[in-house]
Amino acid sequence: MVDYKKVRELKKEEAAYLAGIIDGEGTVTLTRRNRNDQRQLAVTVSSTDRHLLEYVLQIVGVGKITNKRMNRSNHSPAYTYQLSNRQALSLLKQIAPFLRTYKRDRARVVLDGYLKVTPRNGKYSTEMLGAKEKFNSAFFAFSSPNAKRLE
């Protein structure tokens, strides 16, 4: 059996700090590895400061840091911290109250419905596929700072 690492229980200050980092430098999104795959939850933070991302990893306790591809020689090296699926969901539960941008609305949509429309085995019935598409549409309705906010 795989040892599934869990997100640490964050102190209030840590949760607020991480929410600020994610609001400013991060994403809360649904991504897919291949065109035919269903979307999966991902929380990422990109930065040229690897030490910042190592600190985020230390606070959260799980996730990975990867090097971003450099397209031009005059660009600084950049890195991405990423967390996905249930680990990302666990982090969002702790930081959602502190998010301030449209990412707060995305977090609410995820917390309210992601597990209901995402089977653990990845096998979707026709009915579940329809529910997942509705969920994806609701999620992506909040995609910019100018998007309509939930009250």
Automatic annotation (TrEMBL):
<dbReference type="GO" id="GO:0004519">
    <property type="term" value="F:endonuclease activity"/>
</dbReference>
<dbReference type="Pfam" id="PF14528">
    <property type="entry name" value="LAGLIDADG_3"/>
</dbReference>
<dbReference type="InterPro" id="IPR027434">
    <property type="entry name" value="Homing_endonucl"/>
</dbReference>
<feature type="domain" description="Homing endonuclease LAGLIDADG">
    <location>
        <begin position="13"/>
        <end position="85"/>
    </location>
</feature>
<dbReference type="InterPro" id="IPR004860">
    <property type="entry name" value="LAGLIDADG_dom"/>
</dbReference>
<protein>
    <recommendedName>
        <fullName>Homing endonuclease LAGLIDADG domain-containing protein</fullName>
    </recommendedName>
</protein>
